[in-house]
Amino acid sequence: MSTSPSSAPSPSTSKSEYYSSLPWFRRFLAMLNWRPVVDYELREIEFERREREYEQRKIAHEHRMKQLEREDEQLRKEDERLRKEDERKKIAHEQRMKRLRSENELLRKEDERKRIAHEQRMKQLRSENERLAELNAKLSAISSSSATNSTPAKPTPSESEM
User: Helices (DSSP H) in 34-152: which residue ranges?
Assistant: First the structure.
C-alpha cells in the first residue's frame, strides 16, 4: 500500500498532520491499528530526506574541498614566487655589496696613493725650501759683504763672455 503523491508529508510534517492529510480509507485503516505501514512510510520518507541532505552536504563538501585545493595551489605558487623573488634580491644584494666593497677598496688604494704622493711632494717642497733658504742666506751674505766692499768683484771668465 503506497500513498499518493499528494499525501506524502513534507519533512516538517508531524504524524497527526500526516494522518489528517490521508484519504478517509487510510485514516480508517490507521484507526484499525494499521500503523506499521504508515510508520514504515514515514521512516522511508525521513530516510529519503536525510539521504538528500547527506548528498547535498557531500556535494557542498566536495565543492569546498576543491576550492581549498585551488587556494592551496595558489598559495604554493605565491610562496614559490616570493621565494624566487627573495633569492633574486639576495643575489642582487650580494653582488651589489661585492661591487661596493671592490669600489671601496679601489678608493682606499687611491687615497693611499694620493697620501703617499702628497707626503713625497711635501718632502720635496721642504727640501726645496731648505735649499732656497740656504741660497737666500748665501745671497744675503754676498750682498752684505759687497755692501761693505765697494769694489765690485772681478768678473769670472764666463760672466765676461756674456
Answer: 35-148
